[in-house]
Amino acid sequence: MTHYRQPRSLVTHRYFIATSTNGFSLFRDNNPIDDPLDTTNAEELVEGVENMQIRYGEDTNGDGVIDQYLNSDNVTDMQNVLAIRITLLLNTITERFDREPDTDTYALDPESSAYDPPEDYLRRATFTTIVKLRNINNRL
């Protein structure tokens, strides 16, 4: 007896910042690979995400340790990327007029210039995480 499996469809997940009803938000778009421009499946994940920076941790000398974090345009070999660092700048949905305007500058990552938001009454905070990529180059 022969068993046949149904072909699986490959789905990509694209994360992006866009305008929502309460300012900016983080969205995820679940796109079938055959139609990458289809945004009809985008869902709002988090309100108040004003900025997102993604950096790729590259091992440049083959020792299994990340030597530098770069944006995607500057990575020399994606096969050597061991982790991804994601930094989000979040803000409150409503302005806090009981406090001084936000005049701070936010360092979203050490490799780029600081982000200077508009002077307003929103409160802001940055959050950073590093996601290790499993099974890259057959490494565990």
What tags apply to this protein structure?
Type IV pilus assembly protein PilW, mainly beta, 2 domains, 0% helix, single chain, PilW, 140 residues
Number of H/I helices: 0
Rg: 19 Å
Order of helices and strands: EEEEEEE
Mean pLDDT: 85
- Tell me about the largest β-sheet: 4 strands, antiparallel
Oligomer type = single chain
Strand content: 35-45%
Question: Into how many domains do the coordinates divide?
Answer: 2
Enumerate the spans where pLDDT stays under 50 for 5 or more consecutive residues.
Answer: none
End-to-end gap: 36 Å
Globally, the shape reads flat
Helix content: under 10%
* Count of distinct strands: 7
Structural class: mainly beta
Query: Which strands sit side by side, in order, in the main sheet?
Result: 5-4-6-7
Pfam families: PilW
InterPro entries: PilW
Protein name: Type IV pilus assembly protein PilW
Descriptive account of the structure:
The chain has two domains: 10-47, no CATH class; 51-138, no CATH class. It starts with 10 loop residues before the first strand and ends in an 8-residue tail after the last strand. Strands 5-4-6-7 form a four-stranded antiparallel beta sheet, with no helix packed on it. Strands 1-2-3 form a three-stranded antiparallel beta sheet, with no helix packed on it. It has no helices and seven strands. 0% of the residues lie in helices and 41% in strands.
